[in-house]
Amino acid sequence: MNSWTKYLLPLLMVTLILVAACEPRKEPIKKIFDQTGKPMTITVYTYDSQRELDEAFRDLHNARRGDDVDSRYGFARWHEWRNQGGQIVRVEPECEIHVVEPKYVDDEETVTLGHELLHCLYGSYHGD
Fold first, then answer.
1. Residues 126, 31 contacting (CB under 8 angstroms)
2. Burial class (CB in 10 A: 0-12, 13-18, 19+), 96
3. Span 48-61, pLDDT tens digits
4. H/E segment holding residue 42
5. What contacts 88, CB < 8 A, 6 or more positions away?
6. d(C-alpha 83, C-alpha 93), whole Å
7. What is the pLDDT of residues 17-56, one digit of tens each?
8. Of the residues 39, 54, 59, 108, which has the fewest C-beta atoms closer than 10 A?
9. Per the domain annotation, does 112 fall within a domain?
C-alpha cells in the first residue's frame, strides 16, 4: 500500500460525514387544515423591496415601527375559527399572500411565493 493511500480512506470517510452533516434538514408539513380541491380566492400583494414588505407586515399586524418583524421574505393571512377546545371548526375560503416582487425564475421570492401558498392551503404547518 502506498503511503498516501492509507490516508485516502479516512479522508474520504471524513468528507462523507461532513457532507451528510451539512445537508439541510427537511421539516415535514403538518396540515392544520386542508383547503386543497376547494374553491378559494387568493389575492397576492407584491412589494418592490424588503422594507416595503416589512412595513406592510407591521401595518397589518398593528406592530410598532420599532418592533422586530424578523425581515421575513413573505407572509400569508387567512381566517380560521376555533372552538373552545382549540380545534378548527371553519376556514374562510380567502387568503392573502404578501411577498417581494419576484424578479427571476426560482429566486428566493419565487420560492417564498410557493411557501406562502402552502400556508393558504394548510395553515400554520410549521408553527409560525
1. no
2. middle
3. 999 899 889 988 88
4. strand 41-47
5. 32, 33, 80, 81, 82, 123
6. 18
7. 434 444 556 788 889 999 999 999 999 999 999 989 988 9
8. 39
9. yes
Strand pairing class (74-82; 41-47)? unpaired
Unique residue bearing C-alpha cell 461532513: 18
Residue range of the domain that includes 47: 30-122
Task: Give the DSSP H or E segment for 21.
Answer: helix 5-22
Contact between 95 and 77 (Cβ < 8 Å) = yes
- Cβ–Cβ under 8 Å, residues 123 and 80: yes
Assess if residue 111 is contained within a domain.
yes
Task: State the total domains in the chain.
Answer: 1
Domain-embedded: residue 80: yes
- State the cell numbers at 85: 377546545
- Rounded Cα distance, 100 and 77, in Å: 15
- pTM (whole model) above 0.85: no
- How, if at all, do strands 41-47 and 88-100 pair? parallel
